[in-house]
């Protein structure tokens, strides 16, 4: 590792690296970056002697856990798990990433889908996201709930713990007897007008109640 802390050794696409021309002696090997994975927690102390060369190298192995982002949908008040929510994932440039289910988790894939649905327990997991910033947007809220605000999060190549994101939803508020409420509908009611944006007022009880004819 260099004095600045940047790694001098980078593994190839199959996870291997060969370091040559090291003198005989003791060395400390530390993993300092693991894109899409958790950093290996252990430091390796190794000793090279005259037996080790290109044809007979000293082999040092690490095993990394994939970096997971666990998402949980909850009722804002009761903290009960909510099903039926759909989410999309965008990168920091606003590009929607396609996600594909593999062995119970979702990974970025060219043949994936633009959104995912939580399971019966209100959960889903994103695995192996590369370092960068992301926006998690609820494109469909659970029935009877208002959509949650988008979630912004950032991942680095030095993550040591799995990421957990809890997203609360606020139940829709319906008027009780004696109240009037205004609800804005976009495309939910077919009205013959070119404007396309309307409001509808529900009148219940009290002075606002209309008599039936």
Task: Please explain how this structure is put together.
- The chain is mainly beta and 213 residues long.
- 0% of the residues lie in helices and 36% in strands.
- It has strands spanning 25-29, 44-48, 68-75, 86-91, 96-97, 99-102, 105-108, 116-117, 123-127, 132-140, 151-155, 163-169, 180-186, 197-203.
- Strands 4, 5, 8, 10 and 11 form a 5-stranded antiparallel sheet that branches. The chain has a 3-stranded mixed sheet with strand order 9-3-12, with no helix packed on it.
- The radius of gyration is 27 Å and the shape is elongated.
- The model is unreliable at 1-6 and 182-213 (pLDDT under 50).
Question: How do you describe this structure in short?
Answer:
The chain has strands at residues 25-29, 44-48, 68-75, 86-91, 96-97, 99-102, 105-108, 116-117, 123-127, 132-140, 151-155, 163-169, 180-186, 197-203. It has 213 residues and is an all-beta fold.
């Amino acid at each position: 590792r260099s004095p600045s802390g940047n790694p001098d050794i980078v593994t190839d696409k199959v996870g291997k690296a060969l370091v040559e021309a090291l003198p005989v002696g003791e060395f400390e090997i530390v993993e300092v970056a693991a894109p899409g994975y958790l950093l290996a927690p252990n430091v390796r102390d190794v000793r090279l002697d005259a037996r080790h060369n290109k044809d007979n190298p000293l082999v040092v192995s690490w095993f990394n856990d994939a970096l997971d982002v666990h998402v949980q949908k909850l009722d804002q008040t009761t903290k009960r798990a909510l099903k039926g929510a759909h989410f999309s994932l965008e990168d920091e440039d606003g590009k929607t990433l396609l996600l594909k289910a593999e062995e119970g988790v979702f990974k970025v894939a060219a043949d994936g889908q633009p959104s995912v649905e939580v399971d019966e327990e209100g959960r889903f997991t994103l695995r192996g996201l590369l370092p960068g910033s992301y926006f998690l947007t609820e494109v469909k809220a659970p029935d009877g709930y208002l959509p949650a605000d988008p979630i912004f999060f950032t991942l680095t190549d030095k993550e040591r713990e799995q990421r957990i994101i809890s997203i609360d939803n606020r139940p829709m508020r319906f008027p009780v007897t004696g109240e009037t409420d205004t609800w804005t509908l976009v495309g939910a009611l077919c009205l013959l007008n070119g404007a396309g944006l309307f409001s509808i007022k529900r009148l219940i009880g009290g002075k606002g109640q209309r008599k039936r004819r």
